[in-house]
Each structure stands twice: as C-alpha cells, then as structure tokens.
C-alpha cells in the first residue's frame, strides 16, 4: 500500500516495498541472534511405544454425573453420541434416543466430560462414541402407621455407561467444502498454529505474494473473497504485519473453505469464502498461552453460576516495536487483538451470549532527523455480536445483532471508516431422516466515510470521492436450501438466496462521476446446486454450480475502504466444478477437481491499470470480465497421525478481457486514449502452477518435526512506457518463487489435559526473495519504442526476503 495523487492506496508503492524488505531482514537478523544465543530443550524421557494398530476407546475420567432435570418425571434412558477430540475433550454432543428434557440435560452435562482420548497405534485420535445415561426418578415411600413418613428422597443423579460401540473417522465433507481441523492447523509448518494462515496451502488459492494475507481464489481478487467468523463478517484474516491470525487459535474449532458455489448461507461475495467456527463454551476452567519471538498470546475460560454460564477472554500483543527499533530503527511495526465471550444457558434449550473481538495493525516510518513516526498504514476493526440460540426438535435456531467499526489510515492524511449494524436469523431443522432444511434472513447497514485529517474535514478530493464517496450502503437478504438424501447413495443440495443491495450517496458529495446516481437499489438472485453421489464405498463424485453477486470492491480488502459505484452495477460470477473424492489405503484421501469460474463487471483495478493505481486514470475505474479454469488436486493423510502429510497442486489459467490504452498524437498533443479492440490477456495474478507439500512426523518422546515446500510460477506483466502498458500485454513473467518452512516441537504432558511445548518455526527459512514489481526505463515525454529491445525496457524488482522466524513456548490445561 502507498500514496497516490488522491491519497489512496496503490498495490505496489516503492516506499512500502522498501519497508517490507527491511522488515524481512529484521526478522532474519532477530532469528539468527536468538539461534546463536540458545539451544532447544532436550528430553531425557524414553521414547513412546508405538503401540498396536488396534483402536483403544476413550475412557471417562472426570464429570460422570448428570443431574435429574427439575420438574421432570419418570425413568428414562438417553443415548448420547459424543465426538471426543485428541485432548480428551467433548468436541460435539447430541442425543440419538430419548425424550426431553432428559436429552437436553444429558447433552449439556456431557460437554463437561473429560476422557482419556482414544488411541490408534499409541497416538491420540478423534473418536465418536455412544453412551447410555439412565435417569431414575425417586418415589415417595408410603407413610407408616407407626410414625411420620420419612423425608422424600431426591431423584438420583444419572451415571453414564459406555455402549460397546466406538467409531473413529473423519467428518463427512459438504460438497465443495474443505475443512481444516485443529490438528492440521496447529501442526502445519509455516502457519504458526493459526487457523486462517493455513488456507494458503489449499488448492485454488493463489497468493499475491508469499507471506501476505491476500489471495486470489479461482481468479477472484482478494476483495471478492468473504471472510467470516461464526457468521460475522470480518475484513481481515490475519495481521498485515506478517503476523498471526487476528483470532486466538484456541478459540477456533475449525476453518471451512469454499472456493466457489458455497451453500446458500454464504453470499454477497463473488469469489471464495473462508469461515472460522468457534468452539462451544466449555464448562470447566481451562486456558492456554504462548510466548514467542515477536508476540505473546493468552486464552482463559471459566464457568460461573453453577456451570450455567461461561466467560472467555483471549488476546495477543506484539513487542515488534521494541524488536524493530533495535534492528531497523527507521521502521515501526505493531499489532494486537482481543476476543471476549460471555454465554449463559437460560434453560437446557436456550442460551444467550455476547461475543466481542477486534484487531489493530500499525506500520510506520521514522524520520531520522526529527524522530517523528509517520504512518504508512494503520488499520483496526471491532465487532460486538449478541446472540440468542435455541435448540428445537431436530435442529436449532439463532437470532443475532452485530455492531462493527472498521478504520484504516492511509498515510497521515486520509482515514477511511465504516460503521456497521447487522442482524441475522438462522434456522436448521431435520424434517425427516433424509431431509435437512436450512433457512435464514439477514440485513446489513454500512456507513462509509473518508476523513481528511490534515484539514479535519469530511471527504477528500473530487477525484477520490468519485470512487469512494461518503455514503450509506445496505443489503437485505433471505436464503434457503435443503440437504436431501434422495437415495442412499445420492445427496442433493438445491438452494437459493435473494439479496437487495442499496447505496445512498451523501448530499455533500458534489462530483459523482459518469453514470453515477445519488441513490441506487439493485436486486440479485443467486441459485446454488450441489450433488454428492457415492459411486462405490471408496469413491464419491461431487458436483457444484452457483451464481454469486457482490457490490463493487477494492482489489484487496482494506477495513473501512469500499468502492461506492453501485450505480454501475454489481459484480457477478458463475462457478462450476466437478470432482471426485477417493479413499485410498494407508489412510490417504485423494480429491481431484476441475473447475471454471466466469466473472463479469469486476472492479479489478490491477487488471486494467497495472501497478500504478491512480483515481484520475480512466483505466482504474473501468469494469472488466474474466475467466479462470483449471485442475485442483489434493492428497491428504490426516494430521495427528504419527506420519501425516498434505499435498496440493493447482494447474490454472486466469484471463481478463481488457481494452488497452495508449498515447495518441493529435495536433502535436499527446493524449491517453483507447487503442484497438477488446483483448483477452492473462490476468495480473495468473499463476500457472501452485504447489504445496507438507509433512510432519512424530519421532516419539514428545518430539514432532515438520517441513513444507511451497512453489508457484511468476505472475505475468507488461512492459510500460510512461506508466502505460505496451504489447505484448502480460507477455512476460516474473521469475518463479519457492520457499521452505520448518517446524520442530517438543511437548511434555501432565495430568489429563495439561501440556507444555517448545516450538521452533520458520517461514521462508532459506530467505528467498520474490520479484513483485517493475522498474522501467524513462523515455521522456516522446517515447521512441525503438530505443531499446523488447523485453529489456523493464526489470523485475525483488522484495524481501519476507521471512518470519519464531521461537517460543506454549502450554495449556
């Protein structure tokens, strides 16, 4: 990011690139200093026995009594189905037999159970088990003629007993969805245990640059990918300071990723979707924390009101400002985040909760003469989500209201801000053994402002307001889909969502630009269809098709900054895919998928005006269309095993339709105008090959080592004269890039759930640099294209190395 004539960001500012390069050098210097001054902890304990190949079922060690429900009567048996994770905690619980209110009482109490986890080959694994809970009502004895009746006895607390049925397996994939669980997230080298960092290893995901939090998903720019946390829209996944995720990893249960055509629950984005789902409240006191080279994080959760309520607090604070001031004095880098949740069970069926979280990042440059810190980029966002959840027969429903504030400082002059109010209703109900109905409705109101801090006035230059006018936007929507098992081998998920988009530009905005209107309202209908067909016990065919709409957006998501030209229409995309899921021997799963995504009306600035974004340049406000097609391949062996691994490969072609501009001479005057007809060219972030290979091995005695290789081809570029691309358009490519990440962990355990671990991890340990921008020769005001040979006018410029070393200690109980 950087400054332009309008005070707004450019995707490739030389000043910011220089700062990022210094940041990368600082990471490397800090790592070498620490590695030279210390050594890893050593273990004297014997290696763990590999065990046998048989599965040892979970064993209940704590929390085995279930209170008899107040006001209930009768003797009832409840059968529970529990998913016990590798830490021995109950990950999911529901009743499969028995009546209310006994079923809810048993389910609620079971979430506090602690098990010795199931083991396979001596290693903890996730297991699904069934338990029987027998409730027995105590009856009043009859009065004796010889004396008064004895006191009435209370109903007995029920004790669960195991049913000899243990199932160890993975969660069934929804069509088009890839799920990353806690084990994969925490063990992936280069992800630093953070949930959202792990998505860059998935097929179909193309990074703008290694280590940066911006991805093209099947050709859709980062601004067209939706990020959600427990149903709440968030602008960022992880800290812009090349740091960790904006949410503490201990709060995230798993991350779901849809490359395109998601269920009807997700909408208003034309690209992919990333959804983090948080853990259910735990009714026992527990916590975890870590101290690393660059930050400290902590999470704690405790029950109150006799277990009816829980309080959770988490956060992370960096000390990079102190670190960088010693290594690179001219750079200031800082970030922090927080999460808090209070949940209270009004009844076994009703819960109210408040969930608050937020994040802050700062990148600054120090003036060597004055010592003043100049803001290069600063951003923050905050969310407050209040919820009412109710369990209903065969399902659940949720009503929620969300308040939010997003803000970004683009240099010291311009501040963009969004104040958000949103509400949503969600319903899931099982209509029969073969039909699950899902529906919802939601509305969002956003108030966007641009503030000029140098004058204290609202708004900036006319050219800036043309693209980012202060305004009020709203979106209202309703959706429904059905998960219908039409045959034991065939599952169909038809669905649709209807959205109404609106924008009202503030009265004090004078210049609206061509085709702009003061108030605009546009409806959109997004049909979706997914089909899963069990071809054989080990082969499943998956097909998805969907239409998606979105308001105009900036090429990368910046909190508080959103393009406001709704009057020129919505962005839209049609996504289709055909894939196969194959269960292979040795616990491997293979998933090849072919896909195509056609996009229309994209506000994709990099595809029309290259790297020199300027609000006064007509190329930078022009809509474009494009297409991406290719093959995605993933091969997985579940993390958490003694030897685990993940391989992903994407072979794709991403194109854009564009009308090139150039300089024309008329009457001795040079002017910028359209040249020629529409061309289909490679998109700026077309990467033909993207490959990830990660592996992790449990050595024994608590030692685990892992490595990752990441490779992608260079993106295309056009040579430029006076900032104008010249043929052949996107006919050249930056050099290919690869990096190695490493992770070493030594873990000690104590008690049933306690652990302490030493972790050494390094992203881009080989300090590879990446070419990300151009430096072109200057030819004056009257360029002569014959003064240099084709391919020699512009030279790729390297950034970095962008590298993140980490040494730390983490633990939990």
Written account of the structure:
7% of the residues lie in helices and 53% in strands. Strand 29 (519-536) and strand 30 (539-550) form a beta hairpin. By secondary structure, it is mainly beta. The strands form 10 sheets. The chain has a 22-stranded antiparallel barrel. The protein is globular, with a radius of gyration of 28 Å. Mean pLDDT is 79; it is low at 1-14, 16-53, 140-155, 164-171 and 781-788.
Overview in brief:
The protein has 813 residues and is mainly beta. The chain is built from six helices and 48 strands.
Q: Which labels suit this protein?
A:
disordered N terminus; globular; single chain; 48 strands; about 800 residues; mainly beta; about 55% strand; 22-stranded antiparallel β-barrel; 6 helices
Q: What's the SSE blueprint?
A:
Elements (H helix, E strand, L loop, with lengths): L13 H24 L17 E2 L2 E4 L13 E9 L5 E8 L4 H9 L3 E3 L1 E3 L2 E3 L1 E9 L24 E8 L9 E5 H6 L17 E3 L7 E3 L8 E4 L2 E2 L18 E7 L14 E6 L7 E7 L2 E10 L4 E10 L1 H8 L3 E15 L4 E17 L6 E20 L2 E16 L3 E19 L2 E18 L4 E2 L3 H6 L3 E17 L2 E16 L13 E18 L2 E12 L20 E14 L3 E15 L3 H4 L14 E14 L5 E16 L2 E6 L2 E6 L4 E4 L6 E12 L2 E10 L3 E2 L2 E2 L2 E2 L6 E2 L3 E14 L3 E10 L6 E7 L17 E6 L4 E9 L1
Parallel strand pairs: 13-16
Antiparallel strand pairs: 1-6, 2-5, 3-4, 3-8, 6-7, 8-9, 10-15, 11-12, 13-14, 15-16, 17-18, 17-48, 18-19, 19-20, 20-21, 21-22, 22-23, 23-24, 24-25, 25-26, 25-27, 27-28, 28-29, 29-30, 30-31, 31-32, 32-33, 33-34, 34-37, 34-38, 35-36, 38-39, 39-44, 40-43, 41-42, 44-45, 45-48, 46-47
